[in-house]
């Protein structure tokens, strides 16, 4: 279930956000759909309105300007009008006392972070996507075999795309390469390509090509359930099933396999494992 409280969202995420100190964590503040945005207070954003309930990050000059009474009043009026849910001060900046009182009186979360503004923005955005929208972005390949979506991961150069393409050549369904967007819906995971990269494949020595024009890919679908997870390793070792891996608290059967770089039969080993799991699900 997606997080419904600002307090629950932030508690336990201190290391992820580089939290230096929580100044205020409202107990009753809920999270609405508009809270899915995390915006810096600088640049063009400062000049226009932002969606209600947004999270604002202040760093550098933005934070320093709040030492001036006029700028502070202008900023707090903006926060009030736009009903911001959270203020974060990056780069170890300290919120002025007036801002602390304002946040406490208006039930707005307030904390400082040791991270830079851009880095905190990326970390905060990822947290929001995962905990509120229930979406994460993962580096890997997604194919569908025997009706089961298989996530293939491993270090760069280990042969994830090579393995996925070989499985596609064997008649299985190609879904996406490189960056995957995984969404949790109804307690189950679904994967697809991320953004503008969803319809392309990056081939070593060739470059970026459209999936539908790639030789050997016979079937493509834009999205697939995500049911299994395997990891390729640059060692000629025996495949080994491990404990289930979790994505957004959903358990996935997990196994390791040698890389196609060191084991020509790696795709066949992966295929056999998925076939065995699929057969077990049919019996069950």
Q: What does this entry look like structurally?
A:
This protein is of the alpha/beta class and 284 residues long. The protein has 2 domains: 6-131, 3-Layer(aba) Sandwich (Udp-n-acetylmuramoylalanyl-d-glutamate--2,6- Diaminopimelate Ligase, Chain: A, domain 1); 135-283, Rossmann fold (3-Layer(aba) Sandwich), CATH 3.40.50.300. The chain has helices at 6-10, 14-17, 61-65, 69-82, 97-105, 117-131, 160-169, 266-283, and strands at residues 19-24, 38-40, 55-58, 86-89, 109-113, 135-145, 148-153, 173-185, 188-193, 200-203, 207-210, 219-220, 223-225, 228-233, 240-247, 250-258. The strands form 3 sheets. Strands 6, 7, 8, 9, 12, 13, 14, 15 and 16 form a 9-stranded mixed beta sheet that branches. A 5-stranded mixed beta sheet has the order 1-5-4-3-2. A two-stranded antiparallel sheet has the order 10-11. Helix 5 links the parallel strand 4 and strand 5. Helix 7 crosses helix 8. The longest helix has 18 residues, at 266-283. The two termini are 27 Å apart.
Strands, helices and their partners?
Blueprint (H helix, E strand, L loop, with lengths): L5 H5 L3 H4 L1 E6 L13 E3 L14 E4 L2 H5 L3 H14 L3 E4 L7 H9 L3 E5 L3 H15 L3 E11 L2 E6 L6 H10 L3 E13 L2 E6 L6 E4 L3 E4 L8 E2 L2 E3 L2 E6 L6 E8 L2 E9 L7 H18 L1
Parallel strand pairs: 2-3, 3-4, 4-5, 7-14, 8-12, 14-16
Antiparallel strand pairs: 1-5, 6-7, 6-8, 8-9, 9-13, 10-11, 15-16
Helix pairs in contact: 7-8
């Amino acid at each position: 279930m997606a997080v419904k409280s600002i307090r629950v969202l932030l508690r336990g995420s201190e290391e992820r956000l580089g939290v230096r100190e929580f100044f205020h964590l409202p107990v009753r503040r809920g999270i609405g759909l508009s809270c899915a945005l995390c915006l810096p207070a600088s640049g063009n954003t400062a000049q226009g309105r932002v969606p209600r309930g947004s999270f604002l990050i202040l760093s550098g000059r933005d934070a320093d300007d709040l030492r001036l009474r006029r700028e502070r009043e202008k900023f707090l009026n903006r926060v009030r009008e736009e009903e911001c849910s959270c203020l974060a001060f990056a780069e170890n900046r300290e919120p002025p006392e007036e801002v602390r009182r304002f946040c406490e009186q208006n039930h707005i979360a307030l904390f400082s972070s040791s991270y830079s503004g851009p880095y905190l923005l990326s970390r905060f955005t990822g947290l929001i996507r995962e905990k509120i929208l229930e979406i994460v972005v993962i580096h890997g390949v997604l194919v569908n075999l025997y009706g089961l979506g298989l996530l293939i991961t491993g270090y760069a150069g280990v042969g994830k795309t090579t393995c996925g393409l070989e499985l596609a050549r064997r008649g299985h369904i190609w879904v996406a390469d490189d960056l995957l967007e995984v969404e949790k819906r109804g307690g189950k995971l679904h994967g697809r390509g991320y953004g503008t990269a969803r319809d392309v494949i990056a081939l070593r020595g060739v470059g970026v090509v459209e999936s539908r024009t790639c030789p050997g890919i016979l079937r493509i679908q834009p999205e697939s359930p995500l049911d299994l997870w395997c990891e390729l390793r640059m060692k000629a070792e025996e495949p080994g099933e491990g404990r289930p891996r979790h994505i957004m608290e959903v358990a996935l059967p997990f196994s390791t396999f040698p890389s196609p770089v060191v084991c020509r039969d790696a795709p066949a080993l992966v295929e056999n494992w998925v076939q065995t799991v699929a057969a077990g699900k049919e019996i069950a």
